[in-house]
Amino acid sequence: MRPMSPRKAAALPDGGSLRDHLIATAERVIAERGTVGLTVRAIAREASVADGVLYNHFADKEELLAHALTAHVRKVEQGLGTLPEPGTGTVEANLEAYVAYGLAMHRAILPAFTGFFSQPKVLARFAELGGPGEDWRDRLAGYLRAERDLGRLPRGARTDAAARIMVGFCHEVVISALFDERAPTEPAPEAVDDLVAVVLRGVAG
């Protein structure tokens, strides 16, 4: 029996490219099964292509996995809705919305990163794919700077430091729950209130 052509086996819908098909397949595997023990062979099987076909479209496995991880993060973000715009609502309520978004995002994506902690090349490629201003941290810092420019935050507000505090809060809550099943997966409402108060008024406020 003649072996099936890898390109023919991919059966791409709507004339899509095989490269995109491979990224979409890898993203789906990550979403459904996580990344622990994920192999290029498993992705090839899911995509109905021969193992070597992947290397016709990617320089190495790290490139494919980084693109798939990026696609996974983008898909998660699309399901989280929009973030408040500068100058709308109140700064307090908007920052609470940013925290809620950050917590939900990290809960959804951090499990996918755990399988790559031992593969720094994948994480480095992932970092290279993100443009400045695209991720939640950049948008949070940009929001704070915009509110400062609008006069809704003090002229001397240290917005980058404030953003780091909020990012660190989200990381601490989600990572604690990821590695300790006894840790709460949601912070108490007063904890978020206190966080926003410290960001806006300082630790002595």
Describe the protein.
GO terms for molecular function: DNA-binding transcription factor activity; transcription cis-regulatory region binding. The protein has 9 helices and no strands. With 205 residues, it is an all-alpha fold. The chain folds into 2 domains: 1-58, Arc Repressor Mutant, subunit A, CATH 1.10.10; 71-201, Tetracycline Repressor, domain 2. It starts with 5 loop residues before the first helix and ends with a helix. Residues 1-11 have low confidence and may be disordered.
Structure summarized in a few sentences:
InterPro entries: Homeodomain-like_sf (IPR009057), HTH-type_TetR-like_transc_reg (IPR050109), HTH_TetR (IPR001647), Tet_transcr_reg_TetR-rel_C_sf (IPR036271). This protein is mainly α and 205 residues long. 62% of the residues lie in helices and 0% in strands.
